[in-house]
Amino acid sequence: MSSAMTSDTPRPAPGAPKQRGRVRRRLNSALRMFAALVFAGGIYAIVAPGGAQGAAPLTPAAEAGKALYDQSCISCHGANAQGVAGRGPSLIGVGSAAVEFQVETGRMPAARQEAQAGRKPPLYTNDQARQLGAFIQELGGGPQLPEGEDYASKGDIARGGELYRINCSSCHAFSGGGGALSSGKYAPTLEPATDRQIYAAMLTGPQNMPVFGDNELSPQDKFDIIAYVQNLKTDADPGGWGLGRFGPVTEGLAIFLVGVVALVFASLWIAGKS
Questions:
Q1: What pLDDT sits at residue 50?
Q2: What is the pLDDT of residues 166-190, one digit of tens each?
Q3: 143 is in an annotated binding site
């Protein structure tokens, strides 16, 4: 009787306890992973900037800049300055320095897509350009210009000349007159550039210009270069006609043409006399 009951009792399938243990381990691992994710998310929500409070409100200058941005920039750079493919790049991280340079020099807003955006009469005032810069700065951060308008008085002209000849003269020429580059591009003249515009160009590297960060040219180095460039504009030509200060090429060409013309007239005069 007992043997019959024992034989009729169902026995667990081989490996069933191992399978149930494996399932429990997997469930426990999943629960631990979920708890860890919840804990990490809670910590991030607490310590992340603006995580619980949302985005910080814009300053009055940035609010005014946003109104200008929505009016003239949004179609090319997007609602959140993220850029629009085929129209304009992202402005996140470019900083107020780049915005001020492009807007104050009239390069932006751009009239059309071309090899290089040239300087033209600006659409906005300097104050409006700085409001636009404040909006982009608060939106995504980036390089900023030092306070003030007069940087040249803080620099050393002689040392600035050395730095300029090493870093700038190959494109802008020794006198800051600019020069041609490849593919229809060019280095513009520095004649109309202000202290802040020169500093912003060195700091942000617009278009074909390399970026000279503070690890390459310190703020004092930039002040020195600005002092030299601005001194060039007031420095007289003691030798006479400067020929645009483009260097020995124009000087040699002028001497050659004047000399050839003088020789031709001299030859004709001699021939006529003889």
A1: 46
A2: 999 999 988 888 888 888 889 999 9
A3: no
Q: What ranges make up the beta strands (E) of 23-112? A: none
Residue 170: beta bridge partners? Answer: none
- CB-based contacts of 98: which residues, under 8 Å, 6+ apart? 142, 143, 200, 204, 206
> 59 a known binding residue?
no
Distance of CA 72 to the CA centre of its chain: 20
Q: What is the DSSP letter of 54?
A: -
Per-residue pLDDT of 237-261, as tens digits, reads: 666 666 666 666 677 787 888 888 9
Cα angle value 16/17/22 (rounded, 5°) = 95
77 labelled ligand-binding: yes
The residue extents of the domains of the chain are: 60-140, 152-237
CATH number of the 60-140 domain: 1.10.760.10
Nearest to 106 by CA among 126, 79, 136: 126
pLDDT per residue as tens digits for the range 23-70: 778 888 888 888 888 888 777 766 654 444 456 799 999 999 999 999
Q: Are 73 and 132 in contact (CB under 8 A)?
A: yes
- 239 annotated ligand binder: no
Q: Residue 200 corresponds to which tokens in the numbers above?
A: 């912003």
Is 102 known as a binding-site position?
no
Superfamily of domain 152-237: Cytochrome c-like domain (1.10.760.10)
73 assigned to a ligand binding site: yes
What percent of the chain has pLDDT above 70? 83
